[in-house]
Amino acid sequence: MRTVLRGRRVVVDGREQPAAVVVDGPWIEAVLPVDTPVAGQPAQEVVLADDEVLLPGLVDSHVHVNEPGRTEWEGFATATRAAAAGGVTTIVDMPLNSLPPTLDPAALDVKRKAADGQCSVDVAFWGGAVPGNLGGLRALHDAGVVGFKCFMVDSGVPEFPPLLDPEPALREIAEFDGLLIAHAEDGALLTDAHGRRYADFVASRPAASEESAIARLLDAARTTGARVHVVHLSSAAALPLLAAARADGVAVTVETCPHYLALTAEEVPDGDTRFKCCPPVREAANRDALWQGLADGVIDMVVSDHSPCTPDLKRLDSGDFGQAWGGIASLQIGLPVVWSQARARGHGLADVVRWMATAPARLTGLSGSAGKGRIAAGAAADLVVFAPDATFEVGTLHHRSPLTPYTGRTLTGVVRSTWLAGRPLTGDAPRGRLLERA
Ligand code: ZN
């Protein structure tokens, strides 16, 4: 069953160009000049409208699904439906907030069984590194996780304690050329947060705490030679440190999130805990500096850190930033949130594709035999038909919980359709697959 998609704007090889994308089964067979007649009678011809651009399916390597155990926060069915609606064809599930946390092969098995049969898009899994499972990381690696997540500070849940010193884990992970991704905040520099004032909350988690933890992570990476990745960078003050380490040969990559690129501390209403996440959304000048970090290539990727909870845990009743769960829900709208900002700052869709598809696919190894994150011959036929000039107002989303700080905002860029493995996702039977590290 072959399909040809023809468009005047297709993101291929790092730029938009006219192209015909020939799809055979779940794979892209060829990318040809747009008007090339395709031999062998393709079964279906799809011609994109003039206002549409064809992108590769996005890869969101930072999603907290929370099933099993806290499925009322977010589950595989709802998360992957939201992903599909948002042009995300692969998510990588975080190892914590579900019960059990993904700390050994048996727990990974529990997670895979919970996910099986209800995913609308493809799902891969991170494992966790905590003090209690050191020495057992290789077994989890061999069981198929794409890498290991650790916290350098309290994680918010007792069953996932922090690794204050990541070096022993990195020594172990370096032996099998694995990857450690770290939540980098230094607990010694945090203060107790309480009350409705957002400025107080930001002050309780200062930029210096990120710099301190990142410096420690980079030292451990330098000592051990292991690959490390900084998740959800919020403070742009750490960018020079990261750039210098990379120039020095340290194998480090960096992500930031849509909320740090779109929201600012100045606009967060006091008591509006929908905006709470850790580390926090900081001031407008910091946001601009993060955009510069993306432009300079110090920040490699943008992924959601979708981390919802039940509405009661957001404590909108008291509006107390100290008591509210920290996490922002955005899986379904990451692409238009980032695109709305990116286009205003002179970036093109090829940049967005690099940040939200190609780089996270490479980080997780899913750019290899799984063929994720690009439109090219031999790649996965995961595609997004995107209307970059259309606008919409954020209303009800497919996420399990309705709370998100983006409600009511007008965003630019509409996902018209999402294709997984060579066929459009129509909302009937879920056909996402569970992926293992290649
Ligand atoms: Zn997270």
Q: Could you describe the 3D structure shown?
A:
This protein has 438 residues and is of the alpha/beta class. The protein has one domain: Metal-dependent hydrolases (TIM Barrel, Alpha-Beta Barrel), CATH 3.20.20.140. 26% of the residues lie in helices and 22% in strands. The protein contains eleven helices and 17 strands. The strands form four sheets. A six-stranded parallel sheet has the order 9-10-11-12-13-14. Strands 3-2-1-4 form a four-stranded mixed sheet. Helix 4 packs across helix 6. The longest helix is centred in the middle third of the chain and has 18 residues. It is globular. The model has no long low-confidence stretch (mean pLDDT 96). Zinc ion (ZN) binds next to loops. Zinc ion binds next to loops.
Helix fraction bin: 25-40%
Beta-strand percentage? 15-25%
CATH superfamily: Metal-dependent hydrolases
Number of helices: 11
Terminal Cα span = 26 Å
- Shape by Cα distribution: globular
Mean pLDDT: 96
Which structural class fits the helix and strand makeup?
alpha/beta
